[in-house]
Structure prediction request, 516 residues.
Amino acid sequence: MQYLNISAKDNPRIKRVIKLQKSGHYRREEGFFVLEGLRTVDDAADNGILIEELYFTNDIIEKHPSYIKKFAQNSNFCAIISETVAKNISDTTSTQGVFAVAQFPKNKAQIESGKKYIALENLQDPSNLGAVARTAEALGIDAIIISGNSCDPFSPKSIRASMGTLLRVPLIFADNMAEFIGKLDMPTFACVVQSDAEKLSDMDFSGGAVCVIGNEANGLTDETVEKCRKRITIPMKGKAESLNAAAAAAIVMWEMVK
Amino acid sequence: MQYLNISAKDNPRIKRVIKLQKSGHYRREEGFFVLEGLRTVDDAADNGILIEELYFTNDIIEKHPSYIKKFAQNSNFCAIISETVAKNISDTTSTQGVFAVAQFPKNKAQIESGKKYIALENLQDPSNLGAVARTAEALGIDAIIISGNSCDPFSPKSIRASMGTLLRVPLIFADNMAEFIGKLDMPTFACVVQSDAEKLSDMDFSGGAVCVIGNEANGLTDETVEKCRKRITIPMKGKAESLNAAAAAAIVMWEMVK
Prediction:
């Protein structure tokens, strides 16, 4: 198969790819994002994510011809890019040299009573979001609810940290978490660092639940805590002031499903 | 109080500080490491960590004179550094402008039967190590056992991710994890991703335990798994292949102490 060659950094397609890598606002506006790496692109293809454009270096087509052939068959536009262009597009320090422009995954979900959800308000670290997604999928949480002011689940860092899980696990977007929680007709739990809150281990999540985890530095907003039916906490010892958000979420999700 | 001024990047003291920031080998050789930021230096001073040298910018002494005075009284050498030198020393993108060269904390511990330990074999990501330390302290785990090939708990990234917890939580260093585990006379548990392993939730940790978590990509070595009395697992659903190491450790430690 013959492919177009792109080696100019100011090629308009390449400029768009770089913008999609860097700007969450642009990603949301377009409804497209960039996947990087053989494994991630393969995962996406297997999960029915629509690949619009595919870019790869000569190096990777030599190393993995069958993968590139498979990806190319499923995309509307393909081009070979130079190593320099690959480095410009890449969000990592050592790129494999394969990128796909893909449509946002259709893993949007709806709230159903009796099911179990982890909700994230203003979570800022893509590594934490990625780790929460991995834990949620592994433990069988039904969906992740993400507030509008949280970090972007379709940023390169989030997707990498999630090992591709964010392309599969059902997501629900809540512009304003307090308003969203206020409208739900099911048990809702605010996870807080307060010694007078109820203990996580005393809770019964068997009838379905939404547990809300807050921002890394500031926890949940007062408004969201107020809208939840209960305040729950992981009792802490020593001089510890809080847990890492992804670690707290892991413990909460473990209790929700066991 | 009058302080020495340092603005030359090739000042030998500054060169040593930069080397201590960058090289784990040099830190172990010297037994010293670098603390960065007001909060971290203050935490260290409060925890009895010996501060050998203190470096700060004019900017931070103007903003926080009482802190700097307190730190200076406890250190053997103080100097005002230029903003450029501060940027050269710093491991972060925006530095507060205060650094301490400190002796390794004396938080070394010994194994005692009946107590509870989390062990990390070949853990590579300082963010994971930091998160494990935060969870261990918060849940009251007695000490963290760290294998020789794990990332350095006294690297700037580890300390930052741990929010200073690594300066407080007792640490035990095990050159070779398999050998270390083999010599213990107490229940030892290898945390694995194997469906034929025993379920974490079926275990009884009340008599004390060592639970071992492995490398982010490859898990535990066969040698270490063999030396442990039991193989335990967190049952997983969906297409998930594993949990983030810090999330898995959080769930395991939660079960150990409840």
